[in-house]
Design goal:
This protein is α+β, with helices and mostly antiparallel strands and 215 residues long. It has one domain: Glutaredoxin, CATH 3.40.30. It contains ten helices and six strands. α1 packs across α9. The protein starts with a strand and ends with a helix.
Length: 215
Amino acid sequence: MRQMWLTRAAFLLAAALLASAPAPARADEAQPPQPPPAVGEQDHVLGKADAPVTIIEYGSLTCPHCAEFAHATLPDIEKNWIDTGKARLVFRVFPLNQVDLRAAMLARCVPGNRYYAFIETLYQSQNSWMRAADPDQALAGIARLAGLGEDKVKSCLADKSVENQVVATAYAAQKSGVDSTPTFFINGVKPPPEKNGAQPYEVFNQLLTAALPKS
């Protein structure tokens, strides 16, 4: 896994969010990480709403480890846990750079029922659009396939409220102790580092089984 840092623009926006907040605690009064925000209206849920296990993933769209998880592990989680109604997934984007930030903004603008298909396509074609001479144009082409017209793509990328939403999600993630991508929480609990990140399915199967309600 690699360390996550907000882009300069995102950092400035995060600072603005903090402008009216109480002064932070001194180092000797540092607060422990908070649980991740509860699943809300802005989240996109893959799976049944009443599934007993909730997986929250914080991932970067330019992170190769996140793409590897999406390709190698997530299909088995979907088959054995999500499709069977035992778990649901909430994917939240944490941007690593400006290109990542703009991809995250477009993800928030695609129709809700195409959100996960859009994320999957971005990971499948990650090396292509991420290294394109004009990443915005490459992303726009993928977004159009997800149902965003040219005007909608332009308005989305220019919408500061969408940008602020992405930054607020990243800021909340940092307060929850997210410091690498991908990072997972299972029923609000962050597994230890050796069991977090882009782990093989066998590790996730153990974690998810342990999170099931005891009969």
